[in-house]
Write a structure and sequence with these properties.
Blueprint lengths: L1 E2 L8 E4 L2 E11 L7 E8 L5 E7 L3 E2 L5 E11 L2 E6 L5 E5 H4 L11 E7 L2 E6 L3 E9 L12 E6 L4 E5 L7 E5 L5 E4 L1
Antiparallel strand pairs: 1-6, 2-3, 3-4, 4-5, 7-8, 7-10, 8-9, 10-11, 12-13, 12-15, 13-14, 15-16
Length: about 180
């Protein structure tokens, strides 16, 4: 249990037997009436974001979430296999739990897996990863109809937008949150 005065970004709360992560919080002390805490909470499993207001000093139940550094090994049917870097224990994480992160998962990529009572909640990728471009059309000099970018396929099979000068075999840095091109590596 924790007080609403102790809330921090990233803290996971157990509200009505559902896990919610604190995205934002703000302590408000109006001139008239009691203080309260305005929060923005994200449902850990579905990703739904809601606004919730708590009275200041109210006790809320916190969830014990274990965040571990793991290495992605391979995909086995409908599951992704990760290995704990500290004790070499392997866990299977289902496709819905991995979610959008699957677009940027390369074998041997170091990721962070959040576990609650042994069950995987979500997979968090590094902010950016370097990929090799496996296919792209040649860029035509002077073609500016699409703001100087073209489609390129990276080694995971995901398509991203890159500048015209990028060729097949080029290593590029990609933002894993947005899929945006960040530069050559």
């Amino acid at each position: 249990m924790a007080s609403t005065n102790d809330l921090k970004n990233g803290m996971v709360l157990n509200l009505e037997n559902q896990l919610w992560s604190v995205v934002e919080f703000q302590h408000v002390k109006p001139g008239k009436g009691p203080a309260f805490v305005r929060t923005k909470l994200k449902h850990v499993l579905s990703g739904k974001v809601v606004d919730k207001t708590f009275n200041a000093g109210l006790k809320v139940e916190t969830a014990n979430v274990d965040k571990r550094d793991m290495q992605y090994l391979y995909k086995d049917g409908e599951s992704f296999v990760f290995m704990d870097s500290s004790d070499y224990e392997q866990i299977y994480v289902t496709e819905p739990t991995v979610g959008d992160a699957a677009r940027f998962l390369l074998e041997n990529t170091e990721v962070m897996v959040a576990l609650h009572e042994g069950n995987p909640l979500y997979v968090e990728l590094p902010a950016s990863i370097v990929f090799e471009v496996t296919y792209t059309e040649p860029g035509l000099q002077g073609d500016r109809s699409n703001a100087g970018t073209k489609s390129a396929t990276i080694e995971t099979g995901t398509e991203i937008q890159v500048p015209l000068f990028v060729e097949i075999g080029t290593k590029v840095k990609v933002d894993t949150r947005t899929g945006a091109y960040l530069g050559r590596a």
